[in-house]
Q: What sequence folds into this?
């Protein structure tokens, strides 16, 4: 074990009466981590890892300082500029637990493959829950630059529970997803369903990578990674072309909507203001009570024409901008 935050002795894992005690592992990241009780949505079928491996072996082979499994996962996702911290002790100095931050640049396909900063806080903890050695890892990620990205965090929790000891030891992996909303958004349902779907695909991949790492067979075939969790719209078959086309259609519809809204606003503005000046603009003479009033109307005509022409040109410019932007 390379990390200084725990040892390789199962006997030293702190006892716990409930797995909920994992929530008491407080980090410097505050509310970035939700309580264990929030994770009610299981996103993969429980995975049995190779026999003879303990929860300590799982951590040492896959998540210890310097282990390449998660770095490889993010590389295959297409993430670049990865910055990994070593595990650090938590503020209150508990044993067999740690925290760290991961940062990278991810390409978001739903945003035409534009690069965005990806931030992820991580914490782990070992608990001996009523005699069952258990390893928990919680990840809380966010892509602030994406639309609605500052409104929510996607959290994932992996639970590794061990039965038996020595050569008969068996570890089962379970994975859960929870979306922590920081602000109220009207696309909450879509964010929830999409995040859970993408996390499910991610952890199917990660579980297979863990099995390969524990078996020591580097040649084992692992299915390719599908789109990153930061992508917003994925169809059921994972068809990338269909995803791109779907995004383009949605983009065109949004542009058309804003153009219609722009011209509708212009129409309302023009009709409201023209009501009081219609005669002055469109009739050569105006019935007035005095010659002086008539002169005022005549002098105002050119200014009114210039004013309304400027408004029309402004809205035309806005429409062109909306239609031409990516």
A:
């Amino acid at each position: 074990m390379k990390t200084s935050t725990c040892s390789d002795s199962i006997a030293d894992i702190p006892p716990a009466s409930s797995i909920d005690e994992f929530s008491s592992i407080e980090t410097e990241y505050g509310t970035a981590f939700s309580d264990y009780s929030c994770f009610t949505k299981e996103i993969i079928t429980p995975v049995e890892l190779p026999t003879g491996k303990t929860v300590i072996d799982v951590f040492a082979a896959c998540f210890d300082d310097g282990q390449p499994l998660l770095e490889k996962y993010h590389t295959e996702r297409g993430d670049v500029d990865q910055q990994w911290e070593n595990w650090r002790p938590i503020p209150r100095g508990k044993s067999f637990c740690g925290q760290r931050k991961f940062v990278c640049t991810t390409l978001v396909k739903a945003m035409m493959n534009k690069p965005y900063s990806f931030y992820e806080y991580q914490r782990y903890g070992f608990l001996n829950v009523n005699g069952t050695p258990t390893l928990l890892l919680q990840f809380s990620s966010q892509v602030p630059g994406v639309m609605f990205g500052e409104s929510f965090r996607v959290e994932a929790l992996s639970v590794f529970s061990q039965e038996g000891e020595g050569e008969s030891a068996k570890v089962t992996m379970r994975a859960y997803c929870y979306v922590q909303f920081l602000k109220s958004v009207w696309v909450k349902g879509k964010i929830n369903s999409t995040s859970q779907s993408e996390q499910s695909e991610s952890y199917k991949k990660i579980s297979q990578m863990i099995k390969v790492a524990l078996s020591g067979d580097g040649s084992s075939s692992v299915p390719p990674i599908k789109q990153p969790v930061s992508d917003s719209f994925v169809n059921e078959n994972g068809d990338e072309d269909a995803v791109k086309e779907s995004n383009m259609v949605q983009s065109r519809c949004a542009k058309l909507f804003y153009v219609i809204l722009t011209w509708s606003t212009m129409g309302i503005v023009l009709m409201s203001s023209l009501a009081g000046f219609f005669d002055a603009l469109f009739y050569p003479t105006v019935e007035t009570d005095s010659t002086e009033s008539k002169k005022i109307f005549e002098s105002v005509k050119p200014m009114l024409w210039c004013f309304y022409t400027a408004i029309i040109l402004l809205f035309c410019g806005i429409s062109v901008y909306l239609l031409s932007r990516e």
Observations:
- Confidence is low (pLDDT under 50) at residues 225-247.
